[in-house]
Amino acid sequence: MENNCRILADNHTVSNNTWLPGLNNNDLIIGPSGAGKTRGYVKPNILQCNESMIVTDTKGALCSDVRPVLEQQGYKIMEINLADCAASPYGYNPLAYIRRGKNGNFSEQDILTLAACLVPIETAHDPYWELTARVYLESAISYVLEALPEGECHMGSVVRLVSEMGRGGKYKKLMDEMEVVDPDSFALSRCRMSQSAVEGADRTAACVFSFLTSKLSPFSFDGAKKLFTHPRKINIKRLGREKTAVFLTISDTDDSLYRLASLFYTQALHTLCGLADKSAGHRLKMPVRFYLDDFASNVVIADFDRIISVIRSRGIAASIIIQSLSQLESIYGHAKAMTILNNCDNVLCLGAGRDMETAKYISFQVNKPVSAVLNTPIEDAWLMTRGKPAERVKKYDLKSHRLYGRLPEAQAEAKEPDSTQHQLETTL
């Protein structure tokens, strides 16, 4: 098996060199719970050890399972634990990824992106509360970056500042001081804009502050503060330079920090794209793959439908892992979901479960009745690669990988006595 390739199914691989097959490196993996998405796709491709990776670890066990192999292959392993922030081996501070321009000023665009991720538009018909709260947040982020010492420039300071906005005019006093020190401050300009939106309406302003505070409340507990101030921070740029694996552990039962996870992926994509643009050939020295497990359940990446279409040339790729197409559409909407789907040149369906939308789509692609898709044998899958006829394939068996023997589960199996022999010895 060629090492610089991805495993899609039994006896089916595809080269990571996009210029050879003329395909992008984005894969869409579809399958209900228990279909084998992790063992049949994620783990085998992690074991290929041919690129840096950012991996969503929804169960919290994937990192420990593959860590020995990756370390043997020269990888630097970094883990962010959003399921237990206080125990996270590495920290994550969103403010660390706000770029500085040549003039030394912080990127206004990055500040706007950060605020938009934390306060997304969820009421499209009348987004007044979101838009107004977002401008206040932009001001708070800017103030922390512009006015506070470096050691206090973290998300925890932003949360604290927002909580004080509606208390006795404290924030107004800070802005009055800023007007004297730096009248061109971005924090000051956004504050003026936000104040104009609620001018003369103290009750409205109080409601906006309350709304914004509620949006940031998941980041106000002690565990989150420890994550923001952790002495060991994730270095995203490292992934594009040398073999590095970042595991993002996310609870599959507690969604309070899903937005922080989404922000991490958004910033990681933007950071790596920026690094690629400044690198030789406008391409990362070390390719980076995003393994986005349960993509439509716990991660909503801002503008992902646009980003996925421009990452190929930069040496960045995504493996999107979902349970059904209807799940993807419910999160991103029909148009964006179709754009994401159409930018994955390899689609592997490990089973449709009972989702009719998925079954109908696969049925059309493979030219088989819907019933044939719904009744696909457990060991089989459907593989669709752009430019090739769709085909029914066998799922990949993790135990057949050349590095399987180095996994803890394989070593545990090797230590177990043969059951027949053990039974005989027990009888005797």
Brief description of this entry?
The protein has 428 residues and is an alpha/beta fold. It is 45% helix and 13% strand.
Structural shape: globular
Rg estimate, integer Å: 24 Å
Query: What fraction strand?
Result: 5-15%
CATH superfamily of the largest domain: P-loop containing nucleotide triphosphate hydrolases
Q: How much is the average pLDDT?
A: 90
Total of DSSP H or I helical runs spanning 4+ residues? 19
**Number of discrete domains:** 2
Return the CATH class of the largest domain.
Answer: Alpha Beta
Q: Would you mind describing this structure in some detail?
A:
The protein has 428 residues and is α/β, with parallel strands linked by helices. It has two domains: 5-75 and 243-415, Rossmann fold (3-Layer(aba) Sandwich); 102-224. It is 45% helix and 13% strand. The protein contains 19 helices and eleven strands. It has a nine-stranded mixed β-sheet, with helices on both faces. A two-stranded antiparallel ribbon has the order 1-2. Helix 3 crosses helix 4. It starts with a strand and ends with a helix. The mean pLDDT is 90.
